Amino acid sequence: MCVISSFFLCFSAVFPALAENGVYRCVATDEKKIALTFDDGPHYKYTDEILDILEKYGVKATFFVIGVNAERHPEKVKRIASSGHEIGNHTYSHPHLKKVSAQELEAEIEKASEVISRLTGKKPVLFRPPEGYCGADVSSTAKKSGCDVILWSHDTRDWAHTPSETISQRILDGVGCGDIILFHDFITPDTPTPSALETVIPRLIERGYEFVSVSELIS
Ligand SMILES: [Zn+2]
Q: Residue 131 belongs to a domain with what CATH number?
């Protein structure tokens, strides 16, 4: 659960310089709100599977799409947006940010925002750096493009092909008010993500949780 103490603890342990600088990892709240986030899409197959599950339970989420994937699958981006989900910027080509200058990062963010804006009519206001890398220039560069930086408080490790039962149990045991949960659209082959969602979403709804977009959570 994201309480104030763990909020500052997580920042001070991992991203000490960025705690008050437009970077969010979770939100300290006692409202039963959680943000599901999906990185690296859209994917030709799994994005639709995920959207079908979210739609089945009436759940809103946030998708941090990669610009090149958005160009490859414009219809998926349009479906995400028309279903009422939020779309965030996850760079144009998903570079390793350690090796990228501030100017190159700005170009990556701007190019991805252009693609997303063209497809949805809406410019993203959230940026998630690839691999959660938050070096010195990341926050200020994202800010120049009008984006807050969004990390996460719970990593499902779906990217490591963690079994869906393990992902589900860890979420049900450890997630609470104000958490931002990291999933991925694009795990191949045999992604555990849709199966884990099918387990955790109805259980968390039973517990009284509401799933909201990241912008709604942080507002
Ligand atoms: Zn990524």
A: 3.20.20.370
